[in-house]
Structures are given as C-alpha cells and as structure tokens.
Amino acid sequence: MSTATLPTFDPLDPIALDAQLDDEERLIRSTVRQYVREKFLPVVAEHFEAGSLPDGIGRDLGQLGLLGMHLEGYGCAGASATAYGLTCLELEAGDSGLRSFCSVQGSLAMFAIHRWGSEEQKQRWLPGMAEGELIGCFGLTEPDAGSNPAAMRTRAKRTDTGWVLNGTKMWITNGSLADVAVVWARTEEGKVNGFLVERGTPGFSAPVMHGKLSLRASVTSELVLDNVEVPETNRLPEATSLRAPLSCLNEARFGIVFGAAGAARACYEAALDYAKTRVQFEKPIAGYQLTQAKLVDMAVKVSNSTLLALHLGRMKDAGTLRTEQVSYGKYHNVSTAIDVARTARTILGANGVTLEYPVLRHANNLESVLTYEGTHEMHTLILGQAITGLPAFT
C-alpha cells in the first residue's frame, strides 16, 4: 500500500485534471489565462454593454501566437490540438466573443486557406493573419440557409478573367473588421467553391449587425455581394464541394467543446467565491445545504465537460477523432455550460444579473454558442444517425 501523501483537494479542480496536462500545455494554458485576467477581463463588461470588441485583440492574440496556432508553417505555431483547445477554454472563460474571434480567424478563415488554398494564397495571407495584422472572416451562413448550407443562394458566375459573386451572408463574426472574407458560393455547375474577397472590392460591403442581446463583445456583420468581381487567383482551388466549408466548421466546433467548458468554469468560480463571502442569517450562504447542492452540481458538470474536452483533444492529436464525436462534445458541453451559468446566477441572486459578475453575460453568450457551428438540434440528429444508422434530417 502506498504511503505517498495525497495532494490537497482543489475545489477549482476537484478531479485533478491539471495532472493530465504536460508542461508545455500548462505553460500555454497559464499564458492565455494571465492575458485574459490581466488585459481582457478588466474591460469586457464595458464592451459587452457598449456592444463592441476591445481594440487590439488581433494584435494581442497574434503576439501570443494563438491565431492559427494549430496550423503548420506560414508563421503558425504548429501546436497540438489539445493545446489549441486549452487556449479556447481560457479565452472563453473570459468571454465567448474573445474565443469566437480566435476561432473564426484560425479555425475558419485561416484553416480554409491553409487546407483548401493555393500556395500563393497561403503565402499572401497566412503570415499576416497569424500575426493579427490581417483579419479574416468566414461567409457561409445566409438569411435562408443556416442549418442547411446546401440551400445557399449566393452564386458565382464565371467570366473571362475570373468570377462575379452575388448574394448575402448573415451572422458573420469579424465581418466588418476583415481584410479578407472567405465567401462560399455555388457555381453554375452546381459546385460549392470558396473565394477570397478582399476589403474594398467594388460591390462588397460588410455592415455591422446591431440589436444583439448575446455575444455583444464581438463584431457581427452582414456580407453583401453585389456583382463583386474576383480574379481566378482568389478562388480556393482545392474547394469544390460542401465538404470544404464543413471541414472548417468541424475545426471551429472542436474549439467550442473546450470553450464552453471555460465559460462554465468561470461561472462556477464566480458562484463559489460569492457563496463563501455573501452572509445571510449570520453565516455565508455556502454553509447552507441547498447552496452546497448547487455548487457540487456545478463542480461535477464543469469537471466532466473539461474531462470530455481533454479526451477529444487527445483523440484529435492521435488522428482518431470523428466528426460525430465532435458533435457529441458540442452537444454535451454547451448545454451543460448553460445549466451551470443559470445555476450560478441563482446563487448570486440579483447581483447575478449585473455586469459586475460574469454569469449572465456568459449565459447570454452561450445562447449563441448553442446555435452557431451547428444548432443543438443538428448535433442531436448527427448523433442520432451515428447511433441508429438511420438519417432523420428530413
């Protein structure tokens, strides 16, 4: 029988998941966490209230080597999938808008160019995007084609020198900030191609979308393409079907699996700290059974979500992760994070609805996370088909 001294129980890491990380992963995790806590959290509430993204986020994340960090070459760090996931976890512990910026830049726009672009396109765009000097966005969703991208109406017509694009995209993160938009359109032959549309191209505009009650510390835009001419050199040559944009979405979904666990952790930490200091009936509310039941439920859910994310990260690094398993992670972790955020709000009482504390900000953000990169219902059907072998999408 071992006589080793047991480590101290950590209420913020109740099943000692930190021990599952290697030294490099801990360093990356700690570096991102420090940035979020020192530079981002002090200003996020005012930006959430104003509906704006803090200035310099691209350059900050670029200097930290986080943009496209899981890609190889062209100024990208070539980090592991798990390290990228841990980065998303810490970013979303700050705010879903911060993680969304990183995800759209690295897992959607940069990944699309890296995986489906030409060598010339990679050389032109990826180094600047990795540094955060150039910003990208990803234009797939349309007003009438969200969960069914095969129904997209944006069209690409071939000309003597290239292509003419016409259509509208909606709910595009970073759209108004982007130097380049990866726009997906259907050709006259019925194929789905990707095109790099540069800022300032005649006929192309990206008006900001207002009135959001979620993801407010993030720039969300519409993309309008009115007879936009792009040269053949701006077409992603390897992307000729829906497989291309869907592969990008799967990369972003993987980051969400970790990110949702980060949002849940932030809510749990806020509730635990509040419960230990808020006194009612002459003792901290953490000393009451009902409050402890809520804290235990949150601690278990946060740990289970983080453990699931780490497991899927190890699978991705080993090359064994299936798309259905990414859906499993998003299905579980996002809905669980919403439960944690709502429970945390009840512990904080009326204070929980203010921007002084993060819980309702996270809860509102998670309503968007539940929908984008595949709605909860779509991931249900993906898993349902995988389990039964029978499609039920229509």
From TrEMBL:
Residue limits of the Acyl-CoA dehydrogenase/oxidase N-terminal domain? 23-133
Residues in Acyl-CoA dehydrogenase/oxidase C-terminal domain copies: 245-387
Record-linked Pfam families: Acyl-CoA_dh_1 (PF00441), Acyl-CoA_dh_M (PF02770), Acyl-CoA_dh_N (PF02771)
Residues forming the Acyl-CoA oxidase/dehydrogenase middle domain are 137-228
Task: Look up the record and give one Gene Ontology term from the biological process aspect.
Answer: fatty-acyl-CoA biosynthetic process
Family annotation (InterPro entries): Acyl-CoA_Oxase/DH_mid-dom, Acyl-CoA_Oxase/DH_mid-dom_sf, AcylCo_DH-like_C, AcylCo_DH/oxidase_C, AcylCoA_DH/ox_N, AcylCoA_DH/ox_N_sf, AcylCoA_DH/oxidase_NM_dom_sf, Glutaryl-CoA_DH_mitochondrial
- Database matches in SUPFAM superfamilies: Acyl-CoA dehydrogenase C-terminal domain-like, Acyl-CoA dehydrogenase NM domain-like
- Give a yes or no for keyword Ion transport in this entry: no
Q: Which UniProt keywords are listed?
A: FAD, Flavoprotein, Oxidoreductase, Transit peptide
In its keyword annotation, does this UniProt entry include GTP-binding?
no
Q: Name one GO molecular function term.
A: glutaryl-CoA dehydrogenase activity
Specify the superkingdom.
Bacteria
- State its cofactor: FAD
Cite the PANTHER family for this sequence: GLUTARYL-COA DEHYDROGENASE, MITOCHONDRIAL
Please report which protein family the annotation says this sequence is part of.
Answer: Belongs to the acyl-CoA dehydrogenase family.
* Name by which UniProt lists this protein: Glutaryl-CoA dehydrogenase
> What organism is this sequence from?
Solirubrobacter pauli
